[in-house]
User: What shape does this take?
Amino acid sequence: MSYKVLVLVKPTEEQPALERAAEFARFMPDLKLVLYRVVRDFTEDKLPELEQRYTREVSSLMDRYPSIKNYEIKIAFSEEVAPSFCHYAGLKSEHFDLAIISANRRNTLKDLFFSPIDSQIMRQVPIPLLIVKDPQAPQRLDRAILLAIDFEESNHEKFIDEVLITAAKIFADNFNGEVHVLNCVPPVHGGLMGGDTNISIMMGSNKPSTRPAIHTAALYDFADKHGIPRERCHVAEGRVDEMIPRVCTTLEARMVCMGTSSREGVLSSFDQSASELVLEQIKGDIFIVNRHVRFDETNLHD
Assistant: This one.
């Protein structure tokens, strides 16, 4: 099966997204990449000249990634990187399966006023997104692929779960990993900054708790449906932005797969701010499916 992936090329020497794409290419010979470079400093009369210049730049850059053999270069001219990238990602004529971008370094004060490019893309891209923070850590084979879900029935988006489990299995198959499912049980007062942030309650605990019991039953149903052994099922009570990184550390997870929603609160598709906080704290990659992603059911295959 062939996969078509859109990769955002940075205007710097460091290219975490390209490094991850190169790793995928070694395992997936049918992988096709579109390398998308956004030029922000331009004048209309110089566009042909600039396009040739940056095409040469990206071509030269690709000498560092010999495993990537099937690719094309797209130079775009826009003052805004994220909207340009998201628009191209959503073109029906392109049929992209995945987008890969590099994580931005966080600047706490600046980020209060200006959302980083990766955050903007995370919220708006209409296809599944892989965000690469550090392509070197951790990258052994057989690492856990952690699928994080909240099974609150009132706002649960089962469609996103199906996209996530499909992707998690593909990543696990290609990297000899194991899919683990984490069911986050949000605090009763989800809008507060508190909550039970004790160590994760793993399966087999005898601690009585009505809400975790309900979530455990939903988790088992989901795991049984998708062939995930129960020993790879985990329940954690507390804020998702604290519990997910903690369980990732325990499992030495290679990556996290999770959904986001634009709605308020901690949801089955976690709120966007939570996913951004998870990105800051984990060592591996994060795979995001937001509310803009829509697939036909026939495309949800292993």
Q: What stands out?
A: Residues 190-204, 262-269, 296-302 have pLDDT under 50 and may be disordered.
